[in-house]
Amino acid sequence: MKRKNHTLLKTVITVGATTMMAILLTACSNSESQKMTRAENSGARYAQQVVNLGPEAQEACVSAGGLPSLNLELNGEKTPVCQFANGRRCAVTAIRSGACI
pTM value? Predict the structure, then answer.
């Protein structure tokens, strides 16, 4: 009987120690490098599209401090615009005519 209790106690201790090690390894496995990798991967999904406004409009937009971007219209179309830091957006025709800049 004593031998049986000793074997049972040894088994319980081994299972408990194994469980604790598994919990510790799981808790420590979420390192900073893995978090950064996930953040970098999610950022890749939202990468900025390259927008071409045309040679003259592109140059005028960038030299005025704007960023070529796409404006999503209500009908689902995307129109190229020059977007400024203050939120103002100008169409290519307005940039070419000088009405926006």
Answer: 0.49
